[in-house]
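Example record used in the benchmark description.
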Amino acid sequence: MKYMLLIYAAPDREPAYGTPEFDEMMAGFAATSEKMNADGVMIDGEGLQGSETATSLRITAGKVETMDGPFAETREHLGGYYVIDVPDLDTALRYAEMIPVAHFGTIEVRPLMDYNPAG
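Model output (structure tokens):
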């Protein structure tokens, strides 16, 4: 089953760029990616640019509206993701625990919809 591991963190809780703590976090991401690749479970994973670069879109009464920035005002921002293919939720949670942001943010683990089940 495929799961998306969504990485959320409050910008004021992240280690500052150029600090030893930032380097340690990035090394943790590299180690996590290497482990997922070595185990053959990683499908994709990327960091996202800051939420200030986002554009949100919605259609109301047939009219397309776009807004700068994220739609919802939240303390934690979506900063990146992994997509993994593992047997079950427990396995997905074990990989989510490896993500460094879990120590100061939130990792949301969500199964992906399978619109083409093998039959």
